[in-house]
Write a structure and sequence with these properties.
The chain is mainly α. It folds into 2 domains: 96 residues; 177 residues, no CATH class. Helix 10 packs parallel to helix 13. 16% of the residues are buried.
Length: 344
Amino acid sequence: MKVVAENIDAIEATLVTIEEWTNPQNREPLAPPPPAVRPRIDTTPQRQQQRTNVNSSRKIIQRFTFQFRALAAMINETGMEPAQVDQAEAMLKALDVMRSKLDSIEDVEFETVVIDDKTLNINETLIEWMKTIYKAKENNKKREKKEDRLKTDRMKRLLEFSKVFPTKLEDDSSILGFMCHLIRMEPLLPSEEDEAFLDEPALVANIKSNILRQDDIRATSKFETLYEITQYLTNMYLSNPTFLRLVFKPIYTMRKPFNNKDAINNINAVQNLLSSIKLANLTEQISGADLQEMINKCILLRRLDAYTTAWLTHSQDLEKEEPQDGDATSVGEALRSLHWGKCT
């Protein structure tokens, strides 16, 4: 038993020694401790703390006032363009956001803005402006619908002109009606809304994109005639951009009902057109096989005979409705002078 007690004492002594080894207070450091760092003294004087809500509210009020005045200059109760309506809506939303921020700050009172010596209540003015903006937006939608309806009516009217014209054209511009006028020998009768679409570059663009189709050209002689005419028109426009406006405008602006005087004016306009084409020396731009083919076909001249006959019939119908001595002779003379003779 004595030996067992000694062993227990030895074990306890060993455990105490181990605990002393693991005690960080008694353990020697592996490296010398770093020198003590003296704290740096900041000599900069401290700022006086200001109230953040005062600064932020002042900036928001400045931005709000500037935006408010800009929107006031834009608002127009008589009407606003779509771009102005969109911009006004965006500005109104920005004002609403700034207004909400101001409401969230305590001890801030901002209810009025002075513009041109007029004190405007912010809430009431914003409500009125909102009504004005949405009213302008609705008016713009109605105007767009009206323009779409007018465009649709114009397309229907022009397609009505082209019912007997055997092509696949689906052109929504006045060039189709004008070409049908030349081919069908009927006067073009556009409405007043069509005047804004009588643009020379647009006419040439429509000719090039919708008329010059080789398959359709080979399919019908009528389209071949149209192709010849469009070649003349294109070359005339390239040589003189004002040609279409000066020469074709009288044909565009004709209205029903026609009398013999209108018929004479139309014949004279076409005669001037053909004379201008003849005197334009377009043969310099056409050479080789193309020139010989055009001379052999004489398509345009043959169609002029049909055009003359159609106008003669039209003038005779007018004479039956409203006979006028002298006009019939003038119409006949104008029709005969329109004819260029046979191809050589």
